[in-house]
Amino acid sequence: MQALVLLLWTGALLGHGSCQSIASSPEEGSPAPDGTGPPLEEDDPFFKVPVNKLAAAVSNFGYDLYRQRSAESPTANVLLSPLSVATALSALSLGAEQRTESLIQRALYYDLISNPDIHGTYKELLAAVTAPQKNLKSASRIIFERKLRIKSSFVAPLEKAYGTRPRVLSGNPRLDLQELNGWVQAQMKGKVARSAREVPSDISIFLLGVAYFKGQWVTKFDSRKTSLQDFHLDEERTVRVPMMSDPKATLRYGLDSDLNCKIAQLPLTGSMSIIFFLPLRPTQNLTLIEESLTSEFIHDIDRELKTIQAALSIPRLKLSFEGEVTKALQEIKLQPLFESPDFSKITGKPIKLTHVEHRAGFEWNEDGAATSPGPEVQPARLAFSLDYHLNQPFIFVLRDSDTGALLFVGKILDPRGT
Question: Which GO molecular-function terms appear in the entry (predicted)?
Answer without folding.
Answer: serine-type endopeptidase inhibitor activity
